Amino acid sequence: MKLYSFWRSQATYRVRIAMRLKGLAAELVTLDLLKGDQFDAAYRAVNPEAVVPSLVDGEGPVLVQSLAILEYLDEKYPRPPLLPRELRDRAHVRALGQMLAMDAHPLVVPRVRKYLEEELKLDEPARNKWQRHWMELACEAFENTVARDKRTGKFCFGNEITIADCCLVPHMTNMRMLGTDVARYPTMARIFDTCMQLEAFSAEQPMKQPDAPKPK
């Protein structure tokens, strides 16, 4: 396996968590999205969308889009499962993951921030306000959902780690990196802390990645 990654990418963090949960190893190929490595012709040949993650597994076509990769991994390597057995529960877990990975994250990725800066001429405080707005809006929806749902347990779905947790931890990690007071989202913060006690989550966090900036 080969995984194209960027240390700060929420999407790639999701995949790294899932792979470690399933005991899968991959050669890590790091790209600097801030420098524009993803736009090189060689990488566009791998992923025409010029985003991460991209996963090479065997001789088949390259796999792209983190949620699609998570489900691929869960179907090909089913132990431990990342989706519940019951149909409605599976839809619930997918919806939780999509609140963060599809409704919030796409609005704060480097290419969007770059557009806000270079095309719309927004200064850094305005760009940070944009980022916090969408991240916090997603947290409010997610918190309200899991706080009142009887299926919530140690993790987003009972005591089973699912795709929802693989999406929650990167989102909350980014919130903390932005300096957000996550105590406003007590259920999410509790689940995050529980997950981070597990190696699959803690060992793959952004600052532990080989391309992360070194402490000064």
How would you describe what is shown here?
With 216 residues, the protein is an alpha+beta fold. The protein has nine helices and four strands. The chain has a four-stranded mixed β-sheet with strand order 2-1-3-4, with helices on one face. Helix 4 (87-101) packs parallel to helix 7 (163-177) and helix 7 crosses helix 8 (186-195). The two termini are 33 Å apart. The mean pLDDT is 94.
Q: How many DSSP H or I helices?
A: 9
**Which structural class matches the secondary elements?**
alpha+beta
Tell me the series of helices and strands, N- to C-terminal. Answer: EHEHEEHHHHHHH
Query: What overall geometry do the principal axes of the alpha carbons give?
Result: globular
The average pLDDT value, as a whole number, equals 94
Q: How many angstroms separate the termini?
A: 33 Å
Number of strands: 4
CATH topology of the largest domain: Glutathione S-transferase Yfyf (Class Pi), Chain A, domain 2
List keywords for this structure.
Glutathione S-transferase Yfyf (Class Pi), Chain A, domain 2; 2 domains; alpha+beta; 216 residues; Glutaredoxin
Short account of what is shown:
The protein is 50% helix and 6% strand. It has helices spanning 10-21, 41-46, 66-76, 87-101, 110-118, 124-148, 163-177, 186-195, 199-202, and strands at residues 2-5, 27-30, 54-56, 63-64.
